[in-house]
Amino acid sequence: MLNPASPTSASCLDPTPENLCYPPRRGDYIYFETPPFQPGEPPTVSLSRAADASMLAYARFVQQRMVLADLQGILGAAGYPGAQPIGDCFVDGANTGRGYFAYNDSHALLAFRGTEADNNNDKAADAEIDRTPEAGGLVHSGFKRYLDSIWGQVTQCVAGYRANHNANICITGHSLGAALATLAFTRLNDPASSLITFGCPRVGNPAYCNVIDAAARTRACYRVIDNLDIVTHVPPDFLNCYAHPSIAIYWLDPNHTLRVNPLKLPSDEDAIAMLPDGFLTTHWMDGLPNPLPEPLADHSPVRYAQYVGKAQ
Fold it and tell me: Is the Cβ–Cβ distance between 172 and 114 less than 8 Å?
């Protein structure tokens, strides 16, 4: 949650490009203020913890990169004595997926990083919208390529935890990280795992979504959407090339109230209509207006973390 003792924390929710592209500066946000995990806890507690985990996966204080001691210090103070980075977490211009695996005896977090605004490799992966086979369906080739690049590390972390623990592994991420989390969830196919995504784009075709829907019958699978968040509306669902799974939806409405499985969500057309003219014909991270229109501001990772945290 935002740190009320910091005089600059309130500005973290402003509709600015900085808040869209980066987590808060050091001291403006306190990670993992939710109580320790307990079996049977309300879903909103899990959502809040996962939202923090997803934002922490960026491993930054605005544009300042964390170092390993920063990441492990935050996770250690939150009750995760084991924490291992995945991919090139602390370098500029990485061309792989990134994230971390953190754990204790009661549960583990597998969190993936979203698109970094200053990383053209991330933007190129986002733009690879041709599809490739995965889990009996077709998925976004750029997302799959990024997960493939770190898959050995992911399986090593999970296998190490599973050697001594049967507890839940919460797989999570924001934006591009949410897409990687989705792919990792189906690829691991671990019966003691859950999936919680924030601002997730469409990842695959309806056949792939059916795999997630089937898993959701016995596992917690939640998709969190902040109001008009434009990233949740891309790639377009033209000709059934891409779709969203039919899993539980937690929607932050325009008043930031968390609603479960609302009867009507904003459509692609609703979100696109509130963007500047011609915005989608250029790269979505180029030339960002200031202040941001709602469909962009709603994608901010700190808004997800703060608003979900207040709802728990």
Answer: no
Q: Comparing C-alpha atoms, which of 175, 134, 172, 171 is closest to residue 301?
A: 175
Amino acid at 144: K
Distance (Å, whole) CA 167 – CA 36:
14
Question: For residue 286, what pLDDT is reported?
Answer: 58
Task: Please give the single-letter amino acid code of residue 174.
Answer: H
Within-domain flag for 57: no
- Do the domain assignments include residue 64? no
Exposure string of 62-96, with b = 16+ CB inside 10 Å and e = fewer, is beeebeeebbbebbeebebebbbbbbebbeeebeb
Domain hosting residue 183, numbered range: 77-298
Residue-wise pLDDT for 111-138, tens only, equals: 999 999 999 999 999 999 999 999 999 9
Please state the domain count of the chain.
1
Each residue's pLDDT tens digit, 215-260: 999 999 999 999 999 999 999 898 899 999 999 999 999 999 999 9
Q: What is the pLDDT of residue 278?
A: 72
Residues of the chain short of pLDDT 70, as ranges, are: 35-39, 280-286
Q: What is the distance between the alpha carbons of residues 309 and 200, in angstroms, rounded to a whole number?
A: 18
CATH of the domain at 178: 3.40.50.1820
